Amino acid sequence: MTMFPLLLDPIAFTLGPLTVHWYGITLGLAALAGLLIAVQEGKRFGLSPDFFLDLMLYGVPSSIIAARLYYVAFKWGYYKDHLGEIIQIWNGGIAIYGALIGAFLCGYFYIRAKGFNYLRIVDICVPSLLIGQMIGRWGNFINQEAYGGPVERSFLSDTLHIPTFIVNQMNVNGVYHHPTFLYESLWSLLGLIILFVIRRLKSLRAGELLFTYLIWYSIGRFFIEALRTDSLAFQGPAWLAKLIDALWSPMTTAFEQGYLNPAEGNIRSSQLLALILVIAGIVFIVVRRQFGWAKERYNDPLINHKRAAGVSESDIVIPQQTEAVQEETETTKNDAEKEDHNRPV
Prior knowledge:
mainly alpha; two-stranded antiparallel sheet; 7% strand; membrane; EC 2.5.1.145; transmembrane helix; transferase
């Protein structure tokens, strides 16, 4: 008899008729971690924790709904005959790009209603999105979903040196698979460190942290997505499918693409969207700088544009980091005043 390793139970615990899944707990932890780092960074700009708490309370449901609708739209051939399963998100089946669409749309209306520059607030929040994705992927791990194509156990344990508990969970019906959740989680962790570093650069303009995040995540997603066997796909032109395969081809030295059902399509939607976002992000940064449109910096004072036609001192929040710059400015101002005072009339 073949012995399979002990797998993790997707159900954490039950309380009477209520069943609590690890997937939901993981998403909750992801949202909490994102909230905490946004609140911490927001303090530098004088934003209250309630600002981010309210944003999360609106944003998380919006993200989940949009992520589910995005997934269902690509799987409508199945869900049209299983309408009752559309709401069963605890069994997995949400798309991160859909979640981002929901989060950005909800954030747009919330931030504009509060009177702040949209790009400035999103810049503060994008590390929260990345840490949320990093943690949330472990829900896929517990559910045994979003994995890649088949591999040998030795590849996971001896070549990649992945911990045994992860290797065991990657055994699906006796076949080991690429832990694509782990690849994406580690990619997100590295991206988070990069965002933490570059957001302290004085030259960083408003909006550039957002597009750096989109570029970084999308590069990783483009290459990792092709390893998966459950990609959302559509039927597109042959030239586009060949282009995407050609861009991914350097990976063939170490990996093979996961199976893509021809009935689903010939283009993985996440790969195409990732490619578009990488190009759009680079163009956004270069064009705005080239034409001088990116004047506001990430670390500039944060202004509430809604309070009054004239901006009062209470509407401006100076980041803690710029205190030294303020002192330098005050010194320059005082020197200028002395020069004017001593100037002959």
